[in-house]
Design a protein that fits this description.
- By secondary structure, the chain is α+β, with helices and mostly antiparallel strands.
- It has helices at 215-226, 245-256, 260-267, 272-284, 287-305, 347-350, 368-384, 389-401, 405-413, 422-434, 439-454, 458-467, 471-480, 484-494, 497-511, 519-528, 532-541, 545-558, 565-579, and strands at 8-21, 27-40, 46-52, 55-62, 71-77, 80-85, 89-94, 99-104, 110-115, 123-128, 131-140, 146-156, 164-171, 174-179, 184-186.
- Strands 1-2-3-4 form a four-stranded antiparallel sheet, with no helix packed on it. Strands 5-6-7-8 form a four-stranded antiparallel sheet, with no helix packed on it. A four-stranded antiparallel sheet has the order 9-10-11-12, with no helix packed on it.
- The relative contact order is 0.05.
- The model is unreliable at 1-6 and 313-345 (pLDDT under 50).
Length: 580
């Protein structure tokens, strides 16, 4: 089902043993797993499907209750299905009795409902904007059995407890509450006492835990580990003039719990501020900071070793014919150069500072050469694992886009004569084998590709453009039609540095637009292009002043910023901000 058509869903799995007789006459018991899938659409209509193995069976449909508004939550246990809406109504369906009942709480939007765990435990957690109720659902024993409930506990927020962010069940009779102060509280059913006293978790030895500190202490600890421009030598002792005595004591105790090897390395980080910020991000478990400083340090080292101004628009591993992948050998790093080394170094000496390739989890943010090598290895792997015609078609498309035309022709010629695409693939193989990127044929092919794109054949048109070395035009078309990730993939794998930068810069601008609003991803794009001053400006615009100041200091240490006046002024401002 499409996400736009489905509001809420719940499933239950049951295991039923089936007895069968084997070929040897012995009785064999095998589990038969059935899963019940229930969901509602935007109108409140309830659907029930039964999934058994790889077979989906259409079940009952329950029409929407006229008393219910827009459905906000759904939960299911035993024979009861409970739904809630945005106006504080709760509807209960009894599948066994084939009856329904609607209750109005008059509490507004119900943010969450959930049954307590445990067989036969029909306690229901109801989370409102202004508090939590716990219901006990039961069937009233009358002439006509009907569903009723008792409110066994209730708490108002923020009247009785600090503002509640979320809640769930920690056990059959233990709700767990996440409050706005960042604390988790495991409480009893009456919300009177906590089941998780801090005294039970006090460690005998101090533990490095920056997230357990208050905000001021955590920030002070972070900046102490990242950069100390006020000290001639890196220190692990907070001085009195930097903060309050209480914060000083807390931060010093955390610094003392750090591993001695980490302390020794932080004192003499070979790559200065950038490497310290990366280590600090890892210690704090800050995923966003880790990604930023991992990419930033990689490209700072790469820029120092091989400045963009000296790079040629060539692709590693692609021959002059553009159709032979030759893996190149990367020199291993044998030593790390000190950034404060004052001796004159040649460009070859600086190559030792270049980083190892980024992990491929960073995808298009990796170096062009490493990205191309990975994509070629990947398509070769897919080629070796082909099973169906669809797999072969996908491999062929990628091989054409990557310029591996010889292998693409071989795959096109493998199409069976009985296949409906046999004639089309045969013609396509002839086209790919005989194409030339000059003269009248190029104009004809470009016209055909444009017509294909205009008529909805976007990828087919892009492949033709790549065959005549018009990869930049293909990327522009892909971006125009909203295929931004595919355009970045193609640019990174096939285009020269200048053309690739044009495509990636346009992608970065798109990521910064209001509807997309992925500016943190745009920052990584600019880092991969070596646009360090643009990165500082964007971080400043995002009000990430601490990260901007640290990155500015890192750029100054690596001496990678140009000498333009505006860059110098911006760098000075950021450094001043970092030193305050």
């Amino acid at each position: 089902m499409e996400a736009s058509q489905t509001d809420l869903a719940a499933s239950m799995t049951s295991v039923i043993e089936e007895t069968t007789t084997g070929t040897d006459g012995k009785t064999v018991t095998q589990p038969n797993i059935k899963e019940h899938f229930v969901f509602t659409d935007i109108t409140g209509l309830l659907y029930h499907f039964l999934v058994e193995g790889n077979v989906i069976k259409d079940g009952a449909k329950i029409p929407p209750d006229s008393a219910m508004s827009t459905i906000s939550n759904l939960t299911w246990k035993a024979d009861l299905i409970v739904i809630s809406d945005t106006e504080g109504n709760i509807g209960i369906w009894d599948l066994k009795q084939k009856s329904s009942k609607t209750f109005s709480t008059h509490r507004g939007w119900i943010r969450k409902i959930k049954f307590a765990p445990g067989r036969g435990n029909m306690k229901l957690l109801v989370f409102y904007d202004d508090g939590i109720d716990i219901w006990e659902l039961k069937v009233a024993q009358t002439s006509q059995p009907q569903m009723v409930y008792d409110v066994i506990a209730s708490v108002k927020s923020p009247r009785d407890i600090i503002k509640i962010v979320d809640c769930d069940w920690a056990g059959s009779d233990k709700p767990i509450i996440l409050a706005a102060d960042g604390c988790l509280r495991v409480v009893d059913l009456n919300f009177k006492s906590s089941m998780s006293a801090m005294s039970d978790y006090i460690q005998a030895d101090p533990v490095f835990g920056p997230h357990l500190l208050d905000a001021k202490s955590a920030f002070t600890l972070k900046y102490m580990l990242q950069h100390q421009p006020w000290n001639k030598e890196f220190s692990f002792n907070v001085m009195n003039q930097l903060c309050d005595p209480e914060i000083e004591q807390v931060v010093n105790s955390q610094l003392n719990t750090l591993d001695s090897q980490i302390k020794d390395y932080l004192k003499c980080c070979q790559f200065g501020v950038a490497e310290r910020c990366l280590i600090t991000a890892l210690l704090f478990g800050d995923e966003s900071e880790c990604h930023f400083w991992m990419v930033a340090l990689h490209y700072l080292r790469g820029e120092k070793a091989d400045p963009l101004a000296n790079r040629k628009d060539s692709l590693m591993g692609v021959s002059s014919s553009g159709d032979l992948f030759v893996p190149s050998q990367r020199n291993s790093i044998t030593d790390l150069l000190q950034l404060d080394d004052k001796q004159t170094l040649s460009s070859d000496d600086w190559m030792f500072i270049k980083d190892q390739p980024l992990q491929m989890t960073y995808d298009v943010f990796t170096d062009k050469e490493d990205f191309l090598r990975y994509q070629l290895n990947r398509v070769n792997l897919h080629d070796s694992k082909r099973v169906t015609y669809e797999h072969t078609t996908k491999c062929t498309e990628n091989l054409i886009l990557l310029g591996q035309t010889d292998r693409a022709v071989q795959l096109l010629l493998e199409t069976e004569a009985e296949n409906v695409s046999y004639y089309t693939d045969s013609l396509k193989s002839c086209l790919v084998a005989s194409i030339r990127s000059s003269g009248a044929s190029q104009s004809t092919i470009k016209l055909v590709s444009t017509n294909l794109i205009a008529n909805g054949k976007l990828m087919e048109g892009a492949q033709l453009l790549c065959l005549i070395d018009k990869g930049l035009d293909a990327c522009r078309y892909l971006q125009t039609y909203g295929h931004w990730n595919q355009a970045a993939w193609l640019a990174k794998a096939t285009l020269g540095y200048a053309e690739c930068s044009e495509v990636m810069k346009r992608w970065a601008d798109h990521l910064c637009t209001g509807p997309v609003n992925q500016k943190s991803r745009a920052v990584l794009v600019l880092l991969s292009l070596g646009q360090f001053c643009k990165v500082i400006e964007m971080l400043y615009g995002l009000q990430q002043f601490d990260r901007a100041a640290m990155f500015c200091d890192a750029c100054l240490e690596f001496n990678v910023l140009d000498n333009k006046q505006e860059n110098s002024i911006l760098s000075w401002k950021m450094v001043r901000l970092g030193h305050l």
